[in-house]
Structure formats: C-alpha cells, structure tokens
C-alpha cells in the first residue's frame, strides 16, 4: 500500500506564494487588480501570496488567467523556487546575525 499523501506541503505553498507575487509585480498589477481579473477576492490573493492558503487547480487556473500567462509558466516558476530553496534548511529565510 502506498504511503498517505501529505496534503499540506509547506515548501510548495511558500514557493507558489513567491512565484505568484513575483508574477503579479512583473505584470505591474496590484492585488486588487489581479483579484478582479481572476474573479477572486483580494483577501484570497493576499492569503495565497502570504503562503496561508494552498491553491487548488481552479485557483491556479484563475490567477494564471488573471496574469495572462499559461499555467505551465506559473508552475515552472514554482518549480524554480523549490529548486532554489531545496538545499536551504532554514525554509528560505535569511540567517540573522547574532548580537
């Protein structure tokens, strides 16, 4: 029997959050503009960008359409973030110098 699927994958959610924010800023949009174009709430966009919600395929399709980019491009950006942070044991956060 296969092991149970982990339904909350924090590194993946954080990578999606970063990719979404970068894509939105690159498109020159505010969260409000993206929410309107994607037909979702501003709060939902904020939750996605802050890594507090795991996107569904429907959400991925909506935000990709709102950004006018293919879903595959969005997923490639997420993959890029995952690969960048793969060897980073502190969850992608910068080290803080000790006093």
Automatic annotation (TrEMBL):
InterPro entries: Cro/C1-type_HTH, Lambda_DNA-bd_dom_sf, TransReg_Diox_bact_type. Residues 20-74 form the HTH cro/C1-type domain. The keyword Cell wall biogenesis/degradation does not apply. PROSITE patterns: HTH_CROC1. SUPFAM superfamilies: lambda repressor-like DNA-binding domains (SSF47413). Keywords: DNA-binding. Signal peptide: none annotated. It holds the Pfam family HTH_3. SMART domains: HTH_XRE. Transmembrane segments: none annotated. One of its GO terms (molecular function) is DNA-binding transcription factor activity. CDD domains: HTH_XRE. The keyword DNA-binding applies. GO terms for cellular component: cytosol. This is Helix-turn-helix transcriptional regulator. The lineage of its organism: Bacteria, Pseudomonadati, Pseudomonadota, Alphaproteobacteria, Rhodobacterales.
């Amino acid at each position: 029997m296969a092991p149970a699927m982990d339904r909350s994958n924090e590194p993946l959610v954080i990578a999606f959050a970063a990719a979404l924010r970068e894509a939105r800023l690159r498109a020159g949009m505010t969260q409000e503009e993206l929410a309107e174009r994607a037909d979702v709430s501003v709060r939902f966009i904020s939750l996605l960008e802050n890594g507090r919600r795991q996107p569904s395929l429907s959400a991925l399709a909506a935000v990709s359409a709102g950004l006018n980019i293919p879903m595959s491009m969005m997923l490639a950006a997420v993959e890029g973030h995952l690969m960048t942070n793969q060897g980073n044991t502190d969850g992608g956060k910068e080290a803080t110098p000790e006093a």
